[in-house]
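User: Let's play a game. I give you a shape written as tokens, and you guess the letters that built it. Ready? Here's round one.
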């Protein structure tokens, strides 16, 4: 830990990524090529999930507001504006061939 960094601050720097890693690899046991829908994708844990999901080779979709859409897209996911769209219908549209 760098000198002068409070222990609570140090934990906060990695907590989102530890949480995201546990969700992806210990709980979901993701594999390359799988799809993932990430709610709150522009937030702290959501953006960590997107970054780790990209490294894991996932096809990702992320719910966010229109304000967070570019960040979600930049992190490798297809943004879904939860304020304007029904995310269930949008996922079906995006993932069903010929829909």
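Assistant: Ready! My guess for every position:
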């Amino acid at each position: 830990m760098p000198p002068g960094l409070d222990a609570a601050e140090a934990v906060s720097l990695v907590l989102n990524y530890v949480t995201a890693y546990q969700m992806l690899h210990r709980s979901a046991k993701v594999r390359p090529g799988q799809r993932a829908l990430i709610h709150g994708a522009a937030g702290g844990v959501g953006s960590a999930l997107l970054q780790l999901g990209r490294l894991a080779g996932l096809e990702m979709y992320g719910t966010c507001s229109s304000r967070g859409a570019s960040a979600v897209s930049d992190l490798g996911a297809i943004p879904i504006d939860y304020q304007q769209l029904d995310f269930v219908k949008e996922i079906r549209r995006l993932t069903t061939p010929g829909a």
